[in-house]
Each structure stands twice: as C-alpha cells, then as structure tokens.
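In the laboratory, one determines a bound structure by crystallizing the protein with its ligand and collecting diffraction data. In a computational setting the workflow is compressed into a single prediction: the sequence and the ligand go in, and a structural description comes out. We illustrate the idea with zinc ion.
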Amino acid sequence: MPHEVQGVVALAKGEPVTVETILVPDPGPGEALVRVQACGVCHTDLHYREGGINDDFPFLLGHEAAGVVESVGSDVSGLTAGDYVILNWRAVDGQCRACQRGEPWYCFNTHNATQKMTLTDGTELSAALGIGAFAEKTLVAAGQCTKVDERARPEVAGLLGCGVMAGFGAAVNTGKIGRGQSIAVIGCGGVGIAAIAGARIAGATTIIAVDIDSRKLATAAGMGATHTVNSVETDPVEAIKELTGGNGADVVVEAVGRPETYKQAFYARDLAGTLVQVGVPTPDMTIELPLIELFGRGGALKSSWYGDCLPSRDFPMLIDLYLQGRFDLDAFVSETIGIGDIEAAFEKMHRGEVLRSVVVL
Ligand code: APR
Ligand code: ZN
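The predicted complex, in structure-token form:
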C-alpha cells in the first residue's frame, strides 16, 4: 500500500509551489522509505521551480534532509528501520570508471529509487536531485541514506546533505586547504560560509571572505574569516593580494557561480595556486581569459561537485565535529518553518536575509 502524505510540489514552470497529497510506494529492492524530519530550502529548489534544471514537471522539491528510516527493500543490507540518516544525492555505484580507479566521489553513475512517487491521480513526480524531501515521507535508493549520530538534531544534520557539504568539501576536499595556508572565499552564502568554516577546521591561518553584502561578511567573521572584503567598495583581487604579502591566496573558492567572480578568483591566486569553482553557473555564461595567463600562472583550476564528498566518510565526521563544538552547524539555521512556508522562504533567500530556512516536518 502506498503511503499518502503531504509534499511540496512545483506543478508548472514559474508557478508558486503548492502543498499536495502525494503517494509514496513501499520500498522495493535497493530502496528505502524515510520519514523526513527536517529539510533545508536551497537555491536548487528554486531553480527547479523556474525550469532552470529541466522541464520534467511536476517536481517534488527538497533535498537537504535528515530523518529516520521507516522500512527498507528486500535485498538491502547495512540499513534498517529506525536508523537516523542524512540523505545524499550522490549514492555511488562502486563500479563505474571513476569508482574503479579509486575516486568514488566522482562516481559517474550515481543512483536513485527506481519506483516513482506520484500525485493521487497517478502523475509521476520528479524528485529534486533524486530525493524530494519536502514531504513527510520519501522514497530513495538505500545508498542515499547515510547513518549519523542521532544526538545531532535533524535541522542541522540535514544541512550536510547539500550546501554545507558542498562548501566545506570545496575548501577541504577539492582545494585541499591545509595548516598555515591562505584561502579566499568569494560569495559568503551558506556554501561560502561552510568553506570558511572548513578552512578554519583544516588549519588555514589567513581566511579572506569576499561578498557584496556586509551582513554576509559579518557572519563570515563569526565563522572563522580572519579578514573581510566588501567587493562593492574594494577591488577584491587587490585586497586579497595585499592580505597575502602581495602574492595572492593559496586557494580561492568561487561560491557565487558568475563569470566576474570566477575571473576574480583566477587572478586572486598565488602562482601555482588552486581555484575551486563550487558556484553553479547558468548555461548562457561564458568567460574569456588570456591563454598566456592560464599557462603562466600555473596551478589548478578545479570544479567541486558536491564538495567532492563521500557521504559515508564525510557526513559522520562532520557530525562528530559538530557534537564536539568544533563546527557550528547551528549558525546556518536562520529559521525553522512549516511545509506551507516555502514560497516565503524563497523570497527571504532571494533578498539575502537567510543562510538557511529549514522546514521541520
Ligand atoms: N561578488 C561577491 N559575492 C557575491 C556576488 C559578487 N558579484 N554576487 C552575489 N554574491 C554573494 C551574495 O551576496 C551571497 O552572499 O554570494 C552569496 C551567494 O549566496 P547564496 O545566494 O546564499 O547561495 P549559496 O547557497 O551559498 O550557494 C552559492 O553555490 O552550490 C552553489 O548553486 C549554488 O551557485 C550557488 C552557489
Ligand atoms: Zn541544494
């Protein structure tokens, strides 16, 4: 018998989202049914609603979530009813060419539940990032469930499922920021702030936050930035150089997703430094750079998919750091809201008023 629950659905492009009754099947082979407890509101949810990801409407939104496993499919091992889990959107298959060469965080064949959740009339829903967690229950692949310490409340644990992991991993996994190094983070929303927090934990000693919004810079300073630069008032490339002995930063994280900030990140690096792009651009964006500068400056230009994370390795570790008081995940939760408040949360996000609004179910 499918489970009849309430979920937040984007029915048509550009239309406000609505709370609908949805049908969630019992888990089949390889699947898990999860009772969602909390789910953060992310830009990607808004991109889905606006048709910016694809046209597979209707979408069941929400993908930054924690909850408790209600039941698992017949052949699932290592996961049982009652497990407290964070949902991830890159369940690795262990067999593709990336996994085979020992780089499973790049897995080219990540998987989701096989069965579809539907509206009551049978219309199939596309689950955002293969999750769909603005719903009381959701159906995912068992590999999308990562068990963590249940002492971390779901409002904060769920945030690791997307933006916070992406930012932390951009600095630590992709950028490989280390002890005594310098890092600049351009864009201090939830993703950039998490990169700053990660850099502090990794031991970076110069952590430069860049944003156009002074409210975000104040938050960045509280989360570990040693210097802040308002790039409306100051040329960020010059400022970053000045703060790093005239050289530029060892690592620059671009957490906006725009050509102009990518260029700033490119030029704000030290020679042979690393640029990490974690901000997601739109398909129309292009950049032009002198080829001689690409060669002459050396180093690495990397993109970071989901913070190059391995959920099974990184989620429990970050939860431990949180429980030890070394990673302030509480600071990312600007407000908790109900399932009917998503449109208002999109507006607050748009106005830059929140790091994260988190739906509690
Ligand atoms: N220069 C510097 N900062 C900027 C600029 C700019 N030109 N334009 C915007 N910003 C700042 C905003 O003020 C905001 O603080 O970038 C930040 C973006 O934060 P959010 O909108 O909260 O987005 P976030 O969730 O952090 O995601 C950032 O990473 O994963 C991607 O899709 C995500 O592209 C998005 C990016
Ligand atoms: Zn997201």
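The chain has two domains: 3-161+328-360, 167-305. Keep in mind that any predicted model is a hypothesis to be tested, not a measurement.
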